[in-house]
Queue: 2 jobs
Job 1
Amino acid sequence: MKAVAKAPANIALIKFWGKRDENLRLPKNSSISINLSEIFTVTSVDFSGGLDDDGVVIDGIKVDGKEKERVITHIDRIRKMAGIKSKVAVSSRNNFPKGTGLASSASGFAALSLAATKAAGLELDERYLSILARLGSGSACRSIPDGWVEWKEGDTSDKSYAHSLFGTNYWDVCDVVVVVGSFGKKVSSTEGHALVESSPFYTSRIKGMKQKIADIKRAIKSKDFTKMGEILETEAINMHVVMMTSGPSLFYWSPKTLEVMLLVQEWRGNGLESYFTIDAGPNVHLICMKKDVNKLKMKLSMIEGIEKIIVNGVANGARLV
Ligand code: PMV
């Protein structure tokens, strides 16, 4: 009745921003991501302890309030499916600071879903595990399958899940994460999603989505790095414009974020090809070919105030450990 699972964070090349159903976490649009090899969560779930109460520990600290409630709500879904009532001990460890836009909820809920279902004696196939993870945190469904992943929007809960497009060895693409700040973000993505309709640009974002997804899938399939990069960078800017123009407006960038973005475009103009993408936080993800990682790291090392650089390859999805 105890299980441990590890799940990677993922970076979306085409983003999930806005839901058609708040409770079921059904997205307004499909999204595309890669799993990250060096940013992950390891979670253990134990139903066997004869405990008086549910307990949740994250990064060595016992959590309460909303954070605990969100985890236990997810555990309740699993207890219901398995027909068990035992109290639970959840312990989760991130190898990166949570709440900084490095997708801790994605890796966290993916690892929790796999460990908890296993500990409860359930054997879910990848599709149902992905659906379950989605109910905990939307983007978590993309951390279940391996490698290059597509989350199909689906119009019902059963149809909204992620699947693998290509495996980890498909293409030598890397994500160099430039950590420019690890302060907690002001507005969580859960709150941010709810504001999308207030941006005048959201309708046009959604209108162009199907074409954008088709275009990036074609670029990935034909290994056209330049095409893929142009699409993913424009997409990140597009999402942040919606964020900044919603009411209240959401600014996830810091001055350092913008500095890195502009430099990346300048370096590209001089032949060093990488493209930026940014989630709901200030850190910048640089998507590049493996052969260019060292050149990029050299360039980045000359910028003052960068806290950390994390070089990721494309990783498998959630696994029991
Ligand atoms: O899964 P959530 O609710 O944390 O939303 C993820 C939002 C973004 O990271 C900004 C985009 C994405 O697709 O990962």
Job 2
Amino acid sequence: MNNQNLLSISQNPSRSPTNQGIVLLSRRELDRMRRVGKLAANLLRHLEPMVQPGVSTQALNDEAERWTQAQGAISAPLGYAPDGHPPFPRSICTSVNEVVCHGIPSPKQILKDGDIINIDVTLILDGYHGDTSKTFLVGNPPTPAQKLVEVTQESMMRGINEVKPGARVGDIGAAIQTYAEANGFSVVREMVGHGVGRQFHMEPQIPHYGNRGAGLKLRPGMVFTIEPMLNEGHYGIKVLGDRWTVITKDKKRSAQFEHTVAVTETGVEIFTL
Ligand code: MF3
Ligand code: CO
Ligand code: CO
């Protein structure tokens, strides 16, 4: 979610700017997050074999919507309209090559050999949200594109491995940024991970860059996403005229992976495996 927009939808002036607005989920709520997280992960797995040259991003969207309804769940993106955005017109985000995130599926967009595509799904089941994404290879992308995708996934896992009670939000960002930059990639600054639960986007924000030891202290029951976007070139981004699609300023490739995770008594649980 966009940093500024996240602030504008979640900031409550009657609360202090830090620590407030962060909810700790009960055991019963964590059970629901587990169920919707697994369902969202299964949707990505269901769509994966469709990711082939010649398929349109609209076809991926339509199958996602059909499958989601068949499971008795709801597609959270469809009609989602945070401040400053028109309602999102589709059920999933499909972000190809230089599209960083929030790409809008279209019948005119046909995947071709050598593309990379992030599919980002968010489901609602029993009032709780599960948010996950993966970047897939279409056919056989060039080695640098494959490396970008591998490094992005590993950077997410390194961020997740920092999560435990007492650790800081900055530890997550530092682990991601260090690994990304050591491999020659940059980390998008303006889009961050987010608390998730009854609402799609909640406090806290989880930047994918930062300093070890800095930021909010993690506590058991916190639930949030970790969703780094790594660029081949500069981290600068811009938003297209549709007010959703985010692309790299330099038009080089970007990749993203996302899991919804909880801080447990001893470490971390990934809901979207
Ligand atoms: N799933 C995205 C995220 O990870 C948000 C998409 S908002 C939408 O935060 F409206 F574009 F779907
Ligand atoms: Co998210
Ligand atoms: Co997402």
